[in-house]
Amino acid sequence: MDPTFKILIAGAGPAGMATSMVLSKNKIEHVLIDKETFPRDKICGDALSGKVVSELNKINTEYMKEVAGNPTDYTGSYGVRFYSPNGKMLDVPFSNNPDNLKHAPGFISPRIKFDNFLFSKANPEFAKISLNTAIEKIIRKDNKVIVILNKNGVFSEEEYDLVVGAEGDRSIVAKELLGDKKQHEHYCAGLRVYYENVSDSHPDKFIELHF
Ligand SMILES: Cc1cc2nc3c(=O)[nH]c(=O)nc-3n(C[C@H](O)[C@H](O)[C@H](O)COP(=O)(O)OP(=O)(O)OC[C@H]3O[C@@H](n4cnc5c(N)ncnc54)[C@H](O)[C@@H]3O)c2cc1C
């Protein structure tokens, strides 16, 4: 690897952190920025699917052990319970052999906890971290990418060889480099609410989807 090759990861959510963790694992230096500081919340249903579990295991098997060993922040889930509008119900377990699993095949974790857990795994030996730093503009110039950054109201211009746009659904990188536009025909509103004192949930904490 060319040590002068400069990489910027814009956004330290799950996409940015997965990229950062894999780069650090391969001893590749990079800059990691986020417009927020951590812990920060993110509107989400908070479900960590089997795919999340297997990707995290690929990055570092110790991470899944930490997740599974922390029932306060992570509730193990063993399947999905679907309800149709007429009240009929169908259970779909994540695994046919749940007794042989080392830990639950899926989890529910508030993103304020899970994203902070991922962020805590940033390796400062390879990741130069800058929080409260927003990417404002990005310009392609020859083989380089010029980014305008805003850290607490102070603007700076930096040059990179590679920018990973991991700033979520309003990605400036995607908008400015790929012409990504809001697609009104595929756009809808979502609402996230936490409830207390919920009873009658599945004993194996199946996720419920009500249509
Ligand atoms: C209502 C709702 C429910 C959902 N439920 C689920 C679910 O149950 N399970 C599931 O797996 N997925 C769910 N999702 C989808 C999931 O939330 C996203 O797929 C996921 O968060 C995307 O991760 P990401 O890292 O790409 O972006 P994000 O998690 O959005 O992270 C982006 C990061 O970039 C930072 N950032 C943003 N702009 C800038 C900028 N200009 N400069 C620097 N940093 C910036 C943000 O602060 C943030 O930390 C849900 C989404 C919604 C809206």
CATH superfamily of the largest domain: FAD/NAD(P)-binding domain
CATH topology of the largest domain: FAD/NAD(P)-binding domain
- Under CATH at level 1, the class of the largest domain stands as Alpha Beta
Which sheet architecture does the biggest sheet show?
A: 4 strands, parallel
Which parts are unreliable, with pLDDT below 50 for 5 consecutive residues or more?
none
Q: Supply the helix-strand structural class.
A: alpha/beta
Percent strand: 25-35%
Q: How many individual helices?
A: 5
The helical percent reads 10-25%
* Largest sheet, spatial ordering of strands: 8-2-1-12
* Termini gap: 50 Å
Number of strands: 13
Query: What CATH architecture label of the largest domain applies?
Result: 3-Layer(bba) Sandwich
Q: What is the N-to-C order of secondary-structure elements (H for helix, E for strand)?
A: EHEEHHEEEEHEEEEEHE
Anisotropy-based shape: globular
Bound molecules: flavin-adenine dinucleotide
Mean pLDDT: 94
Number of domains: 2
Instruction: Please compute the radius of gyration using only Cα atoms.
Output: 20 Å
